[in-house]
From TrEMBL, chain A:
Belongs to the binding-protein-dependent transport system permease family. The chain crosses the membrane at residues 20-37, 49-71, 83-102, 114-135, 141-163, 184-212, 232-252. PROSITE patterns: ABC_TM1. InterPro entries: MetI-like (IPR000515), MetI-like_sf (IPR035906). The lineage of its organism: Bacteria, Pseudomonadati, Pseudomonadota, Alphaproteobacteria, Rhodobacterales. It comes from Histidinibacterium aquaticum. Residues 75-255 form the ABC transmembrane type-1 domain. GO terms for cellular component: plasma membrane. This is ABC transporter permease. Its main location: membrane.
Automatic annotation (TrEMBL), chain B:
One of its GO terms (molecular function) is ATP binding. CDD domains: ABC_NrtD_SsuB_transporters. Keywords: ATP-binding, Nucleotide-binding, Transport. This is ABC transporter ATP-binding protein. Residues 22-246 form the ABC transporter domain. InterPro entries: AAA+_ATPase, ABC_transporter-like_ATP-bd, ABC_transporter-like_CS, ABC_transporter_ATP-bind, P-loop_NTPase.
């Protein structure tokens, strides 16, 4: 649904025609890549000041995360900013999309502002937000919210507006109210597209929080990366970057998990399971039907 | 049992004179001021009739069905259903389309229960009724399957059960089996007739297939395009219940050729 999504293939446990399992292929490529990286630093093809070796990065991470343990509080700060910012952005995005879908007048009135928001580089608002909200977590949450709002709004509105016309007629012929149509047709029908918006939005919220931290902050992984980079402590900066990658994976993984649960009908294995469970739960009802 | 509930439970009591249930006088429908989709349509439908509507694409069959469903207002003329003019959708009238329009996120059971859900909520009794209806359309064992797990023919059976669960006495079917393969369609046609006998519904059935139209109907409404008109009403007094065998009879084929002539002459 969303163009920014990388199709992640679930290749676990499968084997290729060559007989080498996929995980082994991935491991091999990873090891080769790391070896070349390590060697290029060891043999000084590139300066260790510019590119730290993987070994140095791991050592720096060990020191920051395990020995001194100072990375975790920053990790928690950034994660909080992202999660709260995303929740606010998603809340506004879905709400305004719902109102726009239900009322043509509302849609017409908000449209110019949405277009303005779309064409403005939203990151540029970061210094202004910091000026308004100060140096705590609030401005980062606000920036994360503003940046992830738009794709969530657009996806939600698109999903809510693309109602199948015959399904709509079917509801009308059953004299369904506007609310019932929304509740039983529009909203569930839009869920796949809304969830795709959430997946895009959660990654953008992370970008927003980091940008906010770059502008001005005393805590957070963005702050650490900036500080280490200024001091040319690149192994430490890379260690923080890896933590951000991990955070991104956790956030995206959570969104993907929620997507599967909510849009269960698009996943064969889940449908089969839910269907079986429902059958078991309603066994008494089924037994009551006329014997055939 | 009082008189009212008796009346409600047996609308088409044997012996009682069959009533006129739909009457159309000089109905027209124009879209956007210039597209004349229907012009001067006149007909009546008796309670319990099976009417087939046939005609080339664009002759206004779907439009006519939407007028009868109350989904569209007529541009002119008088359209009465059960004695009162059509203004908006009514509980006595239900509709079904070529697409099954099932809700993918609801089980077969919950799809069939949709009319009850929309009316305020499904009770235990409604659930038992839904199971009976699913048996009626031949879907026992699939109550808690999901639409994506079913074939196209089975999905249309679910849509039919849902339609029956609206409690409507007038069923409007717009090419309901048009997207299915020939075998499935023939089987569903035979079953549709059986179901109609059982629930005593009045049916308006749109199709592009002359054989199908004749096989099902008491009367075939033959329509022609530009502007959409009701060219001829062909009576089909073949005995019921009908089996596929009758499609070989001369009586049957005479009707088929008659309709083909009307459609051929108009183009
Ligand atoms: N909502 C609409 N707005 C404008 N024109 C319409 C609308 N609905 C139908 N028409 C026009 O009315 C005419 C009849 O359409 P209709 O869909 O009733 O035909 P049909 O007989 O059902 O055709 P088909 O066999 O292809 O389903 C067509 O010319 C169509 O373009
Ligand atoms: Mg049509």
């Amino acid at each position: 649904m969303s163009a920014t999504e990388i199709p992640l293939e679930n290749s676990a446990g499968r084997t290729t025609t060559s007989g080498i399992p996929y995980w082994a292929q991935h491991l091999l490529v990873f090891v080769i890549f790391m070896t070349i990286w390590e060697m290029s630093v060891r043999f000084e093809w590139v300066s260790a000041l510019i590119l730290p070796s993987p070994f140095d990065v791991v050592a720096a991470w060990w020191d920051l995360a395990i020995v001194r343990g100072l990375i975790w509080s920053h990790f928690a700060v950034t994660l909080t900013e992202v999660v709260v910012g995303f929740a606010i952005g998603a809340g506004f995005g879905v709400t305004i999309a719902v109102l726009s879908a239900l009322s043509e007048t509302f849609r017409r009135l908000v449209q110019p502002y949405m277009v303005a928001l779309q064409v403005t580089p939203r990151i540029a608002i970061a210094p202004i937000i910091v000026a308004w909200l100060g140096f705590g977590m609030e401005p980062k949450m606000a920036i994360a919210a503003i940046i992830c709002f738009f794709p969530i709004f657009i996806n939600s509105l698109t999903g809510l507006m693309q109602v199948d016309s015959e399904s709509l007629e079917m509801f009308h012929s059953m004299r369904a109210s506007k609310w019932k149509i929304f509740r039983h047709l529009q909203l569930p029908g839009a869920m796949p597209v809304i969830m795709a918006g959430f997946k895009t939005g959660i990654s953008l919220a992370l970008i927003g929080a980091i940008v906010g931290e770059f502008v001005s902050a005393s805590e957070g992984l963005g702050v650490l990366i900036q500080r280490f980079s200024f001091q040319l402590l690149l192994p430490q900066a890379f260690a923080c970057l890896i933590m951000l990658t991990v955070m991104g994976l956790i956030l995206y993984g959570t969104a993907t998990f929620a997507d599967r649960r909510i849009v269960f009908w698009q996943h064969e294995d889940l449908v089969n399971r839910i269907s079986r469970r429902m059958r078991a739960k309603n066994a008494d009802l089924l037994g009551k039907g006329p014997a055939v | 049992m009082n008189a009212v509930s008796q009346l409600k439970e047996s609308p088409g009591t044997a012996g009682a004179a069959r009533q006129e249930i739909i009457s159309a006088e000089h109905i027209g429908k124009t879209f956007g001021g210039s597209v004349v989709a229907l012009e001067d349509i006149n007909f009546t439908v008796q309670q319990g009739d099976f009417i087939s509507l046939i005609g080339p694409s664009g002759c206004g069959k779907s439009t006519l069905l939407r007028l009868v469903a109350g989904l569209l207002p007529a541009s002119g003329g008088k359209l009465n259903v059960m004695g009162s003019p059509m203004t908006k959708p009514r509980p006595e009238i239900g509709m079904m389309f070529q697409k099954p329009t099932l809700l993918a996120w609801k089980s077969v059971m919950d799809n069939v229960l949709l009319p009850k859900t929309l009316a305020g909520g499904a009770t235990r009794k409604d659930r038992e009724k839904a199971i009976e209806l699913l048996h009626l359309v031949g879907l026992e064992g699939f109550e808690y399957s999901f639409p994506n797990q079913l074939s196209g023919g089975m999905q249309q059976r679910v849509a039919l059960a849902r339609l029956l669960n609206t409690g409507a006495e007038i069923l409007l079917l717009d090419e309901p089996f048009g997207a299915l393969d020939e075998f499935t369609r023939e089987r569903l046609n035979v079953e549709l007739l059986r179901i109609q006998r059982e629930v005593k519904a009045t049916i308006l059935f749109v199709t592009h297939n002359i054989q199908e139209a004749v096989f099902l109907a008491d009367k075939v409404f033959v329509m022609t395009p530009r502007p959409g008109r009701l060219e001829e009403i062909v009576d089909v007094p073949l005995a019921r219940p009908r089996e596929m065998e009758i499609t070989k009879s001369d009586e049957f084929n005479r009707r088929v050729f008659e309709i083909r002539d009307v459609l051929g002459a108009a183009t």
